[in-house]
Amino acid sequence: MSEVKDVLIVGAGPIGLACAIEAQKNGLSYLIIEKGALTNSLFNYPLYMTFFSTAERLEIGGIPFNCIAPKPGRQEALEYYRNIHKYFSFNLKLYEEVETIQKSHSIFQVKTSKANYQAKAVVLATGFYDFPNLLNIPGEELPKVHHYYKEAHPYAFQKVVVVGANNSSVDAALECYRKGADVTMIIRGEGFTNRLKYWVKPDIENRIEEGSIRAYFQSNLKEITPNSVVIDTPKGEKTLENETVLALTGYHPNFNLLAKAGITFSTDGLKTPTYNPQTMESNVEGLYLAGVVSGGMLTNVWFIENSRIHAELIMNHLKKQL
For the packed helices 167-178 and 201-209, what is the interaxial angle rounded to 10 degrees? Predict the structure, then answer.
C-alpha cells in the first residue's frame, strides 16, 4: 500500500490541475489520477473548436495564456496546459481510472485500474464529458450514430442529421455543411440556446434561412434505421433518408462513481451533488467537488473560468482540517 497523501485529486483537467497548484502552495502532499490523457476532455473536443472564453479566463496558477486570436482554440489550450504541467511538475498518474473511493477510519481508500492509494482527502474534478445524454430511442445503438464529433471530413457528401441546439451541434452542422454534407438539424425547442457563441449565431441562422441547412424546430428524433430517421414535428411524423446521425445532446458527470463514494444528490431530477459552496466539501467529510461535476445535470453552470476558485476554496479549507 502506498503512503497516505494529504489529498488525492481525481481528474487532470484544468480544474484538477488548479487544485494541484493550490495543494503545492499550501504544502500539501498530493497525487492526481487521470483515466486518460492530460486534460482528456479538451483533447476529445472537436479539432477546430474555439472557446467562448478569452485566454486569460482559462489561465491557472497565475501563468499567462498567450494567444494571438481573441479566442483560443483546442490546440492552443492543449499547449498551454502541457506547459503548465512542465512548469509545476505535477505528481501525476495518467491512463489510470479510479474505480472506487471508500472511507475507512478517516482515511480514503482509492482503488484504480492499476493500484491502490490512501489519502486523508479526495477531490473529484472529473468533469462531465465522458457520459453522453442518450436519446433512448430505437436504433441509437447503430454504428452510424455518434455522440461525439471530432471533425467534418468523415461526413463529407453524406446525409447527416445533427441533433441539438447548443454550440457543439451548431459547430458540427456548419462544418459538415462546408465540407459538402447534406445537413439537417433536429431541435427540441423553438430556437437555439441563448448560450450560443455570438459569432456563430448569425451564421447558422443565415444558412437555415437560405436553405443550405434544413432545421426542424420543436421536433424530436423518434427512431433511427440503417437508411433513415423518423422525426416528430409540429406538422406530424416525417421520415428522412439518412446516413449519419450526430446526437450531440449533451453529457453528464459520472454519477455512479459519486454515489458509490457516498455522495447524495438533489431529488429534483437535476441530480445536483450535495456540497458546501463555501468549501466545496460534499456530505462525505473530506470528499470535495471541483468544477463542472458539482453542477450535476446542469453542466452549463460551471466552466473553467468561474470554477477555478474551487481549487483555492478546497485547499484553504483542507489545510485547516489537517
Answer: 50
Entry pTM:
0.93
- The answer for residues whose C-beta is within 8 angstroms of residue 282's C-beta and 6 or more apart is 263, 273, 274, 275, 288, 289
Same domain, 10 and 102: yes
Please check whether residue 44 lies inside any domain of the structure: yes
Half-sphere exposure of 197 (CA within 13 A, CB side): 16
Q: Which residues of the chain have pLDDT under 70?
A: 1
- Claim to verify: residue 241 and residue 102 sit in the same structural domain: no
What confidence score (pLDDT) does residue 70 get? 85
SS3 159: strand
The domain boundary, picked from 191, 223, 247, lies at 247
Helix (H, G, I), strand (E, B) or coil at 57: helix
Domain boundary among 215, 247, 279: 247
Residue-number span of the structural domain to which 263 is assigned = 4-131+251-321
**Hey, CA dihedral for 313, 316, 321, 322, is it positive or negative?**
positive
pLDDT at 1: 53
Q: Which among 75, 44, 42, 70 is positioned nearest to 56, based on CA atoms?
A: 70
H helix count then E strand count, the chain: 8, 15
Residue 222 domain flag: yes
pLDDT digits (tens, 9 = 90+) for 39-59: 999 999 999 999 989 999 999
Cα-based distances in Å from 32 to 75, 254, 319 = 23, 17, 17
Q: Hey, what amino acid is at 249? A: T
Extract the C-alpha cell encoding 309.
476558485
Element (H, E) at 22: helix 14-25
pLDDT at 8: 98
241 Cβ partners below 8 Å, 6+ apart? 159, 227, 228
Q: How many domains does the chain have?
A: 2
Task: Kindly give, in sequence order, each residue whose CB lies less than 8 Å from that of residue 226, ignoring residues fewer than 6 positions away.
Answer: 142, 144
* C-beta of residue 77 within 8 angstroms of C-beta of residue 56: no
Q: How far is CA 193 from the centre of its chain?
A: 17
